[in-house]
């Protein structure tokens, strides 16, 4: 095991990187506190949390650009190559081709390998028409594409992406997601931060939730998305007793009567999206007639806000 300024090189078959109780303190304030995690090959973890919760700091510590104040960061795969796309990418005075060629050279790629990979990335992310234009004239989305390309140039074993879809148009988001899915299937491990659900839904196996620099939850992405989504079920025909029972079912969030006309009443039930099928089965078994089912996804806030509302029973109202 080689020790290098707080970074250890070790051999662990089942992970590419491990963090043990990593803390980062800026001006006496802990912005990361005792973060422990393992990154496994071919898996994607979404780092989620409110603004200022420490997502960017965690990714830059993992990229080796920021030194932890305490704790250990272990590169557990020998010769691990890391690709890192920071949140803010500077508009350097190069064209994308000049910039990517020099990044490839710095990272030890052969000129031929750089050309092949660069051409593919320029086409995949639809930046070929601008590949010889100076980057200071680029839009936010165009710069973000170059940022992503430099991180993908060496086909890294670990990819660290800070809000990778930020600024991209719909087609580019889709192309980027496709590229990342393919890399994941080929074994690249990924950690990425995001505020929107698209990449979490398409790519993430796990969610690592941060709050004020601390880990508050690590769970499967599917379970987290189930929490973030809610479903409204409009139904009639439930007995007074069934109304009581419905409120005790798993995933119950809210129940609101909707008066159609005197003597006729519908119930608007809100449940976590994850339990929709079970709830419908229960309602039909209890003699209800289902009028409509509406899924709400993560509308009305970020993924984290929606999940928090639902966890505290304040969603869907
Ligand atoms: N170089 C620095 N010096 C001092 N404080 C810093 C530095 N970098 C980050 N911080 C502080 O660390 C905290 C976490 O910041 P960070 O950028 O990691 O959050 P984030 O979760 O990525 O936020 P966002 O969602 O807004 O991108 C913030 O309070 C921030 O002010």
UniProtKB/TrEMBL annotation:
Domain ABC transporter: 17-237
Entry GO MF terms: ATP binding; ATP hydrolysis activity
Keyword Chaperone: no
SUPFAM superfamilies: P-loop containing nucleoside triphosphate hydrolases
Record flagged with keyword Zinc: no
SMART domains per record: AAA
Key words, A-Z: ATP-binding, Nucleotide-binding, Transport
Database matches in PANTHER family: ABC TRANSPORTER ATP-BINDING PROTEIN ALBC-RELATED (PTHR42939:SF1)
Name recorded for this polypeptide: ABC transporter domain-containing protein
């Amino acid at each position: 095991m080689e020790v290098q300024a707080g970074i250890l090189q070790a051999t662990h078959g089942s992970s590419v990187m491990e963090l043990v109780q990593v803390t980062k303190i800026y001006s006496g304030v802990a912005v990361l506190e005792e973060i422990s995690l393992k990154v496994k090959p071919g898996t994607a973890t979404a780092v989620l949390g409110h603004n200022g919760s420490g997502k960017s700091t965690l990714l830059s510590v993992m990229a080796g650009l920021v030194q932890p104040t305490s704790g250990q960061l272990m590169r557990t795969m020998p010769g691990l190559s890391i690709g890192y796309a920071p949140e803010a990418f500077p508009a350097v005075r190069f064209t994308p081709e000049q910039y990517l060629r020099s990044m490839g050279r710095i990272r030890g790629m052969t000129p031929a390998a750089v050309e092949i990979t660069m051409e593919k990335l320029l086409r995949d992310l639809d930046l070929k028409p601008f590949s010889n234009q100076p980057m200071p004239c680029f839009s936010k989305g165009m710069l973000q594409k170059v940022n992503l390309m430099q991180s993908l140039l060496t086909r890294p074993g670990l990819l660290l992406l800070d809000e990778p879809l930020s600024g991209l148009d719909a087609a580019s988001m889709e192309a980027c997601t496709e590229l990342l899915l393919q890399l994941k299937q080929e074994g690249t491990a990924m950690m990425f931060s995001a505020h929107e659900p698209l990449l979490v839904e398409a790519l993430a196996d796990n969610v690592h939730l941060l709050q004020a620099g601390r880990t508050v939850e690590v769970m499967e992405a599917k379970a987290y998305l189930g929490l973030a989504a809610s479903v409204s079920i409009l139904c009639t025909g439930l007995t007074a007793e069934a109304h009581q029972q419905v409120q005790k079912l798993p995933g119950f969030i809210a129940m609101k009567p909707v008066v159609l006309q005197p003597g006729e009443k519908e119930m608007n039930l809100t449940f976590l999206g994850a339990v929709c099928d079970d709830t419908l089965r229960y309602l039909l078994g209890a003699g209800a007639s289902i009028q409509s089912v509406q899924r709400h996804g993560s509308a009305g806030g970020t993924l984290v806000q929606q999940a928090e509302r639902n966890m505290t029973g304040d969603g869907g109202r």
